[in-house]
Amino acid sequence: MEVKKDIMTPKERVGAFLGGKPLDRIVTMPIVTSNTAQLIGKSQKEFQLNAEVMAKSHIAGFEKFGYDLIYLFTNCSYLAEAMGQELVYFENEPASCRNPVVKNPEDISKIKVAEGYEANLPVYYEAIELIQKEIGDRANVSVCFSGAFSTASTLRGHEQFIKDTYNNPELCHELMKMATESAKNFITEVVKRGAIPIILEPLSSGSLISPRSFKQFSKPYITELVDHAHELGTIIPLHICGKTTKILEQMSETGADVLSIDLCDLEIAKEKVSGKSVILGNVSPSDDLLFGPVERIHESCKNLIETMNGYEPGFILSTGCETSDKVPMENIQALMDSARSYGVNEDFKKQD
């Protein structure tokens, strides 16, 4: 396997991809997040709470691997935290919610719409600015945040929220409306700083809720966030963890520019959304990236590139979900090497 050197910078490559122009190689965006902290000897807790640590970690990851997108992300609950939810921070794992703030319907008075500067949201803004200052001429920066369904579920408690979708849907919608307004305010601040917002909906997964529930409770609010981002003049991808085969068409109908796909056969995915949505995915972050070996990663990437060859409106090689801090760095390198081998455009010539 011959690994070729990049000709374009990530910024040039993604710009050309979005403009439908020739590329030197396939756009490659493995979902590498807080595991970059280990590159500079910092803990998960420091990464989550300190903008300088977050920025330096991601700069180190970008310089090491040269992937096409930096993903700023700490945990799935930080938007809920900004709305009034208390989180517990750990030294070497993501913060989590132990006691949902909306234990009873009347507790909704304990939360508020986040205006955009509460809790740890400013950490993201400062990190974006630091990264943009250091490598913004070459790098693309994004920020991942939980959508309305997942944020509301955190505020209420996951099990209780699912019960509420049957027994108290009005409360669900009230929580999701507040979460949506909070997310809109956050998106606005992110876009102001030149970063791409990415909607995460881990709890809207087909592994957890039915397509009918997705249509009723999740899809309308995702669509509202997508519309808001488009009004601001930015693209906005959508990532849903787990099984998504049965909701792919609905995901596409939200208007999200890129569908980040986890557990779904891309042969099926490309049939369902061909001509509608860019697909990003879906090397397994566990079966492939966590355990390897590198030869398996090379083969998985090669198969995906061949499967999606010629797909329109475009394919981005990535992992199916976030890579954990236990993934060996050489396995992330193996994914990038695969892109620089199997995904190279041999006829590409850079324009002056």
From TrEMBL:
Entries under Pfam families matching the protein: URO-D
GO MF term (any one): uroporphyrinogen decarboxylase activity
Keyword entries, A-Z: Lyase
Gene3D superfamilies: 3.20.20.210
Protein name (record): Uroporphyrinogen decarboxylase
Sequence ranges assigned to domain Uroporphyrinogen decarboxylase (URO-D) in this UniProt record: 9-342
Gene Ontology biological-process entries: porphyrin-containing compound biosynthetic process
EC number: 4.1.1.37
SUPFAM superfamilies in the cross-refs: UROD/MetE-like
The keyword Transmembrane helix appears for this protein: no
